[in-house]
Amino acid sequence: MKQTKIQEINVKEIVAEIKNNAILIKKNNSFNLISVLSAFYGIFFKVFRQVFIKNYKKTIDVRDLLALNGSSFVKEVYLNVLNRECDYLGYINNLNYLESDKKFAKILIIARILLSQEGYQHKVKVKGLFFRIVVSFFLKIPVIGYILELFYYHFRLPVIIERIKADQAKILSEFYEAKDPDNNLSFELKKAVKKLTNDRF
Amino acid sequence: MIDFKSQKIIIVTPWFGNFSGGAEYLAKSMATELNKRGIEAIIFTTCCKSPNNDWWTDYYPEGKTVIENILVYRFPTNKKSKLKHKLVVKKLINNDPLTEQEKTSFFIDGINSDKLVSSLKSFISDGYNVISLPFFQGLTHSVVNAYPGKISLIPCFHEEPQFYWNDVKKLLLNAKNIFFNSIEEKDMTIKNYGIDAGKKIIEGVVTGVGLEINQEKIKSNEFDIKQDYFIYVGRKDNGKNISLLCQWFVTYIKKYNKKAKIIFAGSGDHSLIPSNNQNFIDLGFVSESQKYELIQNAKALINLSYNESFSIVIMEAWLLKVPTIVYQKCDVTTGHSIRSNAGLYVENETEFCLSLKYIEDNPETARMMGLNGSDYVREEFSFDHVLSKYLLGLKKYENTY
Fold it and tell me: Which residue, of A87, A166, B24, B175, has the fewest CB within 10 Å?
């Protein structure tokens, strides 16, 4: 009796069929002109929709978000853009993406969340994001991207040095303040930090 | 005619009583069933409450006690090794390389009891057969290495870094005989230690774990879940690949069936399960009868863990005539699925989604898979079958040393 049942189905054959179907699905997904075009259209539509929002409810600076790392970055993006705590799957997926060490992962995460349906409803403006998306798009082009990157960082070098100076001054001012709250040096350093950060860009 | 009833068996396990991990289940069920068959089987364990409590603190009083008709001897744990063990674990977590000494410390300074080890001496002289399990805990190493060639071993090996450490080679060489939970576990051991401990491993017996479900124990309609669902039963932690399961199931919901549901039954880290999501139902810890009821009414049981030396829960699902879906990276569960013709095995997200869809679209085939599973477990892992393998194995090696 048992033999009859086992002969009726064969798990190996079922799994082989499933594996073949999975390969077909993968092949279909790898290049499909219609899906590529529709994806481009979707992105274009979302960007267009976002740019022409009339009344932004809130404006945040992309640099404030980019200064964060890891889990605190993901959590802050959700709090600032979607005005809510990060859900479990969003947290895991975005953290994995961030840790995959992909170039411009942070920019892409912010863009993805901002351009989602939920992001659109919250009408948040992320200052400086569009510029960075354009830059990251060009820098991702093979060979040309590398040359552009060289130029890009060449022109940005003064800004990067200023930022390092500002960070150093900030750390020093905090150090002196902790040591002696009335220290004049700490006050001077704070002023320097303010000047350096206002002069940025 | 072999006289099995004259055999006296001691099973050594680090924890016993309040905890139901795989090794503890094995020890408990084995002792219960041996006693039922008139063969004396007692448990030697520590006073520690469970793996989730401090391993260097005694919770239970030392001495003799009876738990569910099994005679249990409890011994105090070693107290001085905590710091050493913690340091090694910290290094392991940080992926720092370990010296040979530190590797030994991982085992010996973990859960251990010198008093238990020394107490065994008189019992061995009295003709008791001692079986110790599992390899991952220091107590097993101490017991086996203290009495070379006299203690049998149920290693419960998984494919994990500790399996490749030199201490395991020493353990295998000192064991009297070895009982494996699956043919894949034995193959893995032959592959890695065949040259060093060849004959002993080759002659090691694949016993499996005895399983039977009392149908009267299954309650009906305790849970009012009207919709069809898939189920995961077991501890919720990342070692069991829960995050991956959630991720893949979300893809299935998005692409194939927005109404698909999965139930999680078992203790562990609840934060791993998406909250505020109608497709995921986390019931937490459930009683044994509730567990059986939930499995029985599920479309399929899913287990994507790849650290399994047997997987009791898959066997339970098959006994309840429910098909399974497992991860192909786990040789043991995949091997069982192929041999039984009772479950599907998947390698990636797309295959996972298609397998779930196959189960949903082909209920008759799924039912037949469940029936095959039930036949497989009843034939291969009935207590009579499993215990006779143990007893024959012990008898065979009785006069070897």
Answer: A87
